[in-house]
Each structure stands twice: as C-alpha cells, then as structure tokens.
Amino acid sequence: MNSIVFTLKDIDDKEYRVNRNSESTNLVINDNFISSMCTQVGIKTLKYLFIRLGVSNMAILISDYTLTDTIYIAGFYDVKSHLSIFQVRDVNIHMTNQTIQHMQVDCKSILLADCNIEKLDIGLYEQHKCMRNSQRDEIYKMDKIDFRHITVGNLEIYAECRDIDIQGSKIEELNNNGNMFKEFTSTVSNFHLWHNTNIGKLAISNKIKKIKMEDISINRLFAHAKVYINDIEIRDSIIENCYGFKRQHFKNPTYESWQWVEKSAENARDLREKAEANYQMTKLLYQTEKKEDRFVSIRIREVSG
After folding, report:
1. Strands 187-194, 160-167: parallel, antiparallel or unpaired by DSSP?
2. Could you give the C-alpha distances from 139 to 52, 144, 214, 223, in angstroms and in order?
3. What is the pTM of this model?
4. Which pLDDT tens digit goes with each residue over 162-193?
5. How far is 19 from 148, CA to CA, in rounded Å?
6. How does strand 70-75 pair with strand 46-54?
7. Which of 229, 238, 283, 282 is nearest to 257 (CA)?
C-alpha cells in the first residue's frame, strides 16, 4: 500500500491535510486533481502544496499544474520511498529523501536534497519539443539547479541554466550539454561545485561566466564543443584527468586552467601543447613568487621604520 499525504495551505496560512492510500503504481498530479482536494477541504485559493511520499515502485507525473509556483516533496521519517519514474513539467520542485530510478525534470528551478537517483534528465522534454516543432531559435532556460547531498548515476542537463550549485554530492557522470542546436551556445552564469562533491566524469559543452570548485574531486573532466570559461577559481580540489581543453577555451588563463590544458595535451600526446602549458604555468608561478617577495620586502621596510 502506497501512503501519500497532501498538505495544503490557503492564503490565510490555514493548513489542511488529505491522506491518500493507494495500491495503484501510477499517480498523475495536475490542476484538476489538486483543485478537487481544495474543494473537498474548502480552499478557494491555494498558497502552498507539500506532498509526503511513502511509496514503492510508483510512477508520478506532474503536468498541467499552475496552482502554485513550487511543489514541495519529502518522505516519511520511518518509511523509505522508492519511485520508478518521476516526471515534472512547468512547476518548480523542492524534493528530499527520495530514491528514484528515472527522473525527468523540465522547470525553472529544482532543489534536491538527500536523494538517490539512477538517471536524471533535465530539460530533455523541452529540447525534444523544440526539435519537433523546428524551433531552432529558442533555447530552454532555467534559473537554478541546487543539489545537496545527493547521489546520481547519470545526470544529463539539456537546458541553459543560470546557476548550478552542487554540494556534498556524488555523481558518476554529469554531462552539461546545454542545448542541442550547434548554432547556439548556452551560458551558465555561476557553476559552483563544493563541500566534498565527487564526480566521476564531468563534460562541459557551453559557456561559463564563473566556475568555482572548492574541496571536490573529479576523475575525468572533458571540454566538448562550444566551451568557453570567463573566470575560474579552484581551492583544495583534485582533477585527475582532463581531455580536450585548449588555450582558447579560457578568457584569462590562470595556473589552474593551464593545468587543464597540460593534462589534456598529455592525454592527447600533444608534446608541443604540453610544453607550452608547462611554460605558462612556470611563468605564472614565477610572477606569483615575485609578488610575494615584493610584499615581504615592503613589510620589512615598514617594520624597520
């Protein structure tokens, strides 16, 4: 038996709960479904929707829903929840404590915490819709992807997402594809990986204004078509292997970005590119040491009067 509890709030913050126990393995949530609940409890205008799931091998589709901007989903404290398929379209999702075999998301903002997901596709439905309708001048855009302490097998992003924030998570493969149209380049404003995040394979296929890595590890980092990085900041992080990175992929190459170029050249057996990268790293390291020596000498003169 699948246990589902819907918590609804009206514009006066009065809370109502509706229990739905079902043996069905499919659930479709839309305006008609939730409106019937609102009528049942006497809500005229819905302000907030929270769903608590205790299900086994259930498929859930959220589509044609417009009553609130966001749906909040969590599990029960003492019951594990397993979803075979979870699909959501055109409504933001905040989800915690779920195990999902296949998740498909097309919305402006998604927050996942403490979830275990085998396969996660973001923006795929909208991309296919644009391709079917020959809308090659439109790029599907998102505001935010926020992952906190989740485990994902395969993650595919087919949208131009403004902010991507991943912390404390383990992802076997992450392909940041952007859009599928070769004549358009997707742009990520902020790409932040931090707090013990581990990624087996990360592939980047778009422009990134700012990428920041703090206390993370990446086994394999790939530069695919249309990569261009404006600003890069790396702290206490390990990137084992890099592939495909060139000088032209960076607006202002730093010591770290030249490391990516050097590792890419080594894996491509490009001795000339590797030598150039090593030269640039040595030059940047020398410039940094000169600045530090100059600062120390100035401080000594100040102290000695």
Report:
1. parallel
2. 33, 15, 30, 21
3. 0.91
4. 999 999 999 999 999 987 766 678 899 999 99
5. 29
6. parallel
7. 229
